[in-house]
Amino acid sequence: MKKSILVLVLVIFSTIGFAQDFPAKPNKLVNDFTGTLTASQTQQLEDKLVAFDDSTSIQIAVAIVKSVGDYDINDYALQLGRKWGVGSKKNTGIMLLVALGDRKISLQTGYGIEGALPDMYTKQIIENDIKPYFKSGDYYGGLESGTNAIIRYTKGEYKNDNPKKGNNNNGSALPILIIIIVIIIVIIRRGGGRGGSQVIGSRGVADALFWSMLLGGGRGSGGGGGFGGGS
Question: 38-51 pLDDT, tens per residue?
């Protein structure tokens, strides 16, 4: 009996301890649990993010904590965003988490916003727009710059249920260009000079296709990191 009571007490305390790992759902978008920002700085960030939330369906939440403990910074940010219901209406939430004591930053996005803010962009925002300020101790400047970058990347997206699609005219013109190049090469090879000399060698068509593919470019796609560098 005593053992059962002891086990029950341990379970209760461990549950309470686990629940305390994540702050309760707030009624604000900017939440500083460390007292790092002044009241004025917090309000300025709050006003900007509320205005952006009101004009779009994209909700950006900022949290500053002392530490995430044994959690991975990215997993903690993801779970915190879900617990708080950030952008839950259309899954277009963005969670910006700063763990000051751990010197780590994480920027997590909902599935509905990944098209406008893929992992490549979140990493760039952390490295180029946030960390330079944080390294000098200007945490408000980093958050101001980082949220501005997020807004720039996502502005105009998800204002309605039918967002504008990108123009693919350049991509559709590429096959036509390749066909024209191949036709020209064939004509040149068939209508060569008297000695049957070739203007383009036997690999001419393959080379033309290779260069056209290079000119066509390619696509890339995988944010968290420490203040001192390294992801």
Answer: 999 999 999 999 99
